[in-house]
Amino acid sequence: MEIQKSDKEQEKMNIEKVLEEKGYLMTAPFGTSMLPFIRPQRDIIVVRKYQGEAKCRDVILYRRVGGKLVLHRILEVGADSYVLCGDNQYIKEYGVKKEQVLGVLEGVYRDEKYIDCKKGRGYKVYVRLWCKSLFMRRIILKVAISACSMVKPIGDSAKKWDAIVGNVTDLCGSAPQLIDELYKSESDTNFNNRSIAWLLKNYNRIYDDPDMSLDLYTRQCSLGVTALQLSIAAGTIANGGVNPVTKKEVFDAVLAPKITAMIAAVGFYEHTGDWMYTSGIPAKTGVGGGVMGVLPGQFGIAAFAPPLDGSGNSVKAQLAIQYIMNKLELNVFSNNHITVVD
């Protein structure tokens, strides 16, 4: 996550001057490398001037060798350097010298709430869980980039992209929109993902050009859909691959149970078991604030609300879906069914 879009030396000097004179800095950073903890251009961070030391799991503001100011989390502390990684990244950054560090994150203002990085109990739980999930997040990313490389036709980025958008359109019943600002920001800062793409190439697990595959993955992650579109996509899975609105067969019915099983197994990552117990519906969450649920043979459901909990899941979307499922007394593990009467 970066502090300013411009690389002008004057702006960097201004930030350092503020820290030197006031002892702290408040700003709204951009970039997605610290999601779900810090939302770009929405959350306000409070950074205190660096006093010569920082602890493991602290978030620090530092200047890279090229001059860019970055905000990432400490995973390891060495004698004179730190090992860092963004919360939304997967490859560690080694050898960041202590003299490169300008400040330490003290807290974050999110809407009307202040998250205290020193005393917040919920924040401390989030940090422990998120840091422990680094290995799993790396595996998921590798699979996603590799899957994008398999899209046909091989070697044709434009037609591959048309196929991806076409599939999402068929699932949702209408076309998604590419969020250009998000795509550009992701493309400008996904250096770690580029390394993963070429590592996969080295192990023969990328089946097309690595840079093309990564770009397709990045663009796909920058597609925006509405809650209605998301619910139709869920309904398509619940309906055995047939879109309930357009009546088009999007995928073979034999795949529906496998897709639902994957959602049920890992849809909420380390919190999937809790979610299945309290809601009774396989669901997939995302750091954008959306939750999509699939009740096979009955319906799909989706909800959206930006405020996220400490694990990066929408608070209100979870509560809304849980309420509906419990109110209707529906559960994927029960025999209850819902009947819609005209």
SS-based class: alpha+beta
Report helical residue fraction: 40-55%
Q: What integer is the average pLDDT?
A: 89
What is the CA-based Rg, rounded? 22 Å
Question: What is the beta-strand fraction?
Answer: 15-25%
What are the low-pLDDT stretches, counting only 5+ consecutive residues below 50?
5-11
The run of helices and strands is HEEEEEEEEHHHEHHHEHHHEEEH
Q: Counting H and I runs of at least 4 residues, what is the number of helices? A: 11
Distance between the termini: 51 Å
Counted beta strands: 13
How would you sum up the major sheet? 8 strands, antiparallel
| Overall form | globular
Supply the key terms.
342 residues; alpha+beta; eight-stranded antiparallel beta sheet; three-stranded antiparallel beta sheet; 13 strands; 40% helix; globular
Would you give an account of this structure?
The protein is of the alpha+beta class and 342 residues long. Helices cover 40% and strands 20% of the residues. It has helices at 9-22, 121-132, 134-150, 157-172, 180-189, 191-202, 210-221, 227-238, 256-266, 272-279, 315-327; strands at residues 24-27, 44-49, 59-63, 69-77, 81-85, 93-97, 101-110, 113-116, 177-178, 223-224, 283-285, 290-295, 299-304. Strands 1, 2, 3, 4, 5, 6, 7 and 8 form an eight-stranded antiparallel beta sheet that branches. Strands 11-12-13 form a three-stranded antiparallel beta sheet. The protein has a two-stranded antiparallel ribbon with strand order 9-10. Helix 3 (134-150) crosses helix 7, helix 4 runs parallel beside helix 7 (210-221) and helix 6 crosses helix 7. It is globular and about 70 Å long. The protein starts with 8 loop residues before the first helix and ends in a 15-residue tail after the last helix.
